[in-house]
Design goal:
The chain is mainly β. It is built from two helices and eleven strands; from the N terminus they run ααβββββββββββ. The chain has one domain: Porin (Beta Barrel). 8% of the residues lie in helices and 56% in strands. Strand 6 and strand 7 form a beta hairpin.
Length: 231
Amino acid sequence: MKLRSSGRVAVASLALAAIASVVGASVPASAQDWFRIPDLSYATDSEIGPVTRTGFIASPDFEFSDELNLGGTGGALLQDPDGISIGAKLGYDQQVGNFVVGVMTDGFYSFADGNGHGAGAGNYKSELNYYGTVRGRLGYSFGRLMAYGTAGYAYGELEVKNFGDGTADSEMLSGWTYGGGLEYAWNKDLMLHGGYRRIDFDDQTFSSLPATNNTLSPEMDVFDFGLVRRF
């Protein structure tokens, strides 16, 4: 797995911030608790008590079987990139009664790539370098369990290489995302979450592809899971 040099600082910073929050940092009332390691043991209903979801959230995330469906006129020349990705979410939730309203942003470093397809397959390669979203969500709390829907803006970067003529270009992707998921209170410190999101990017033109087949219409289905730390 190679590291891609451009455009990764924001994603890396987001992931590090969320991981640091889950591993040890919080913002409690007492300064002595700022670096308290979260409890990992499961809490019973009586031990956890009332569950509230108001506050800032940080969550290191893992996504698996990411596959970017390229589509467009250039899709016939390229395999759909697939692989895994790692990243994080940051956001804020406000609970009013059983309803939870929130905003969040996430960013993921992607290892999804694919080779050429069909005749001249060895001439091409595609790589999804990174992607992320900025979105709102609306949930309903059933105590320890919350179901939610989410929608917002999506972005990313896709790179296409043409080994036949030595050209390559990376283009920013922009579009929309929507989906939903579940969140479960494991104990007073941590919550578990799993969800699904659909990402539809706008059509994008790549100069490294032939002029008659240079448009891609990327879209992907994302399944993610992780831990949530509230503070």
